[in-house]
Design brief:
alpha+beta; 152 residues
Length: 152
């Protein structure tokens, strides 16, 4: 992807994160992340139609609970079930995907989106993302998020 497209994805991610979850973050260089967390959720969904591709997001598990709490308007609480946390992350990725596609291609093209799926991963997930040249990294408070859009 070119730098203009990556800038648009950065902008969309930050805007959606702020408006949906009330969390504020900044893009960071992958080399600025010293200690990768070992407890993460990877959310992934594909899209087809005008263009085909996949969008992937790696989120620290603890942050997933915060996303769910903020999205649902509840206090951050360890009793918040991981199911709600993963559902909130899926919804976040779904919104990010739709907004990114609109930002990149406009409002006229039609896309078919698959439902997001999540898997649990460890620090190897971060290692995989670090190897991807155009993967984007963000810091939100003490948490990190990685995002990658693959166009086919």
């Amino acid at each position: 992807m070119n730098s203009n497209e990556l800038d648009k994805i950065n902008k969309v991610f930050i805007e959606v994160l702020e408006t949906m979850t009330f969390l504020f973050g900044d893009p960071v260089n992958r080399d600025e992340i010293e200690n990768y967390p070992d407890d993460c959720i990877q959310a992934e969904m594909s899209f087809g139609g005008y263009r085909n591709g996949v969008i992937k997001m790696l989120v620290q598990t603890e942050m997933c609970v915060e996303i769910a709490a903020n999205t649902l308007g509840k206090d951050y609480d360890e009793t918040l079930k991981m199911v709600k946390a993963t559902d909130a992350v899926k919804e976040l990725l779904n919104i990010i995907c739709g907004r990114v596609l609109t930002e990149l291609f406009g409002e006229k093209p039609v896309f078919n989106l698959t439902p997001p799926e999540v898997t649990l991963t460890d620090e190897s997930g971060w290692d995989d993302f670090k190897k991807i040249e155009d993967a984007l990294f963000f810091q939100i408070d003490d948490w990190f998020v990685a995002l990658h859009l693959i166009m086919k």
